[in-house]
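pls ignore typos typing on phone
fe (ii) ion + seq
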Amino acid sequence: MDGAEKTADAILDRRFRLAGADSPALSRLRALARASLLKELERGLAERAVPGQDEEGVPSRPGSPESPGSPESPDPPAQPDPPPADAPLEPDLSRLMALAPPPLPDVFWEARRVLDDPQSGALEIAAVISKDPGLTASLLRLANSGFYGFRARVDAVSRAVTLIGIREIHTLFLGFSVLRLYRDMPGGAHFDMERFRAHSLACAVLSGLVAAQAGRIDLERCFVAGLLHDMGRLLLWSAEPGLAAMAAREAAVRGEPLALAENRLLRFDHAALAGEAARSWRFPAPLVAAVSRHHEPELHDEPDLPGVVHLADLIARALGWAFETQPVLSPLSRRAWDDLELNPDDLDEIVDAFEVQFPDYLSALSES
Ligand SMILES: [Fe+2]
Ligand SMILES: [Fe+2]
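k done
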């Protein structure tokens, strides 16, 4: 075994410490993660740039070790912003909710009214979406990406609405509205927005691929659920940076998933917070369930959408596209895996497609 293999195995031992690799699915996932990591190590770790970072474009891939040849070692986040003087030691979820979800702009609610109205046609919907140039650009970028693979170029929102469908446009609209909101939310000096967006997008793309592999037809809903699944992390960093950093540091030092540390310290986790925010923004119930239950899909009555996101999140983290520099995977929910009716071999197709498609998504949607 050469040095790169030893390094990859040391990294993956930590990454899979809790999840294990005793089921055929996890063992396949670990093998795929190993192959991907070895490729990264051979390339010197620096080729997969996250657009929007420095002009050299050479930040290490999210989740990559700092340097080849050195296994991941405990690396707690930097010192957090100090908690506000009046911060309670044990914040309750309702108090945080009063601080956390920022209001969505008027154009959002105006568009929701039009999108919710069954009488609305493609032109009317296009007109209201077109009022927001950023959203328009995001929708057109996705319409022209490999996600749809339309042969002709889509250069008008009305055309995108007709081709993609009103319900699907509605779902994408929700996702992009919140994604753009991220840009305006301060996560604090120690919140790495580029890494967060890359993880969210990786989970979105993987949710779409998992859903397609499982034969689902609601690919947009899965994509958006993946895109938004961790928004509770940003909400927490934005409202309580000191507490968020404390939970992150505790998870890093103990080598455990963040949700576990949050639940112990705060008595709720980022998934519950995201669920509250999604409810307050009147998101459809399946999307609320997907974000609030992505770590515990088996606790929801209908675990399929939370299960898609749960698996996608696990794959993203296994491949190193995580928010943390040294992710530790949660165990795979047995029920979510069984409900998806996938074979371990399906993971090969999902990961292959992801590795081909993801760089395009990353550059196409990085400006969203
Ligand atoms: Fe999460
Ligand atoms: Fe996640």
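Residues 344-365 form the longest helix (22 residues). The pocket of fe (ii) ion (ligand 1) is lined by residues 230, 270-271, 294-295 (CB under 6 Å). more later
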